[in-house]
Write a structure and sequence with these properties.
It contains ten helices and no strands. The chain has 190 residues and is an all-alpha fold.
Length: 190
Amino acid sequence: MFGWSFIPLAYLAGSISSAILVCKLMGLPDPREQGSGNPGATNVMRIGGKKAAAITLLGDLLKGLLPVYFANLLNVSPEILAMTGLAAFLGHLYPVFFGFKGGKGVATSIGVLLGFSWWLGLIFMVIWFSIYKISKISSLSALVASTISPVVTWYLTKEIYLLIAALVMTIILLWRHKSNIQRLLAGQEA
């Protein structure tokens, strides 16, 4: 019964916007009003540089990882673990503390995957970095790694609930990146 409490706590953790807080603490403009308008690490890099982006990325990753990690420590069922990860991810996308307008979710999804299995998260990052090294396009790297993640989740965990969570995150990530996909297809993505 106690395990179910991880789900709302994970959503609240996900709702903490690393991008907005980092920009506020570093005296940078609100990322929702500058650059792409997306409160995520890539936009923070545009408006504040590598240090601000790295801190944002770490914060977004940790808010996906920590709730799942602690749920895992208490040996919750795969169903609750999957819902905990999804709650953290959805908290990032639709943060209760910031008018339900959040980022695209890539770093938080990596944190969730790391919480499910360290290998799963590391494979995602290796795929992301490999595609980025070749293409130099962050969104393409995220889209490819995200698309592959459900297959890797099933291969490594054999847990249907974790597979469903990975699949849901992938579908939402693809949907949230629809403008990036359109620019990629048109050859206009930076």
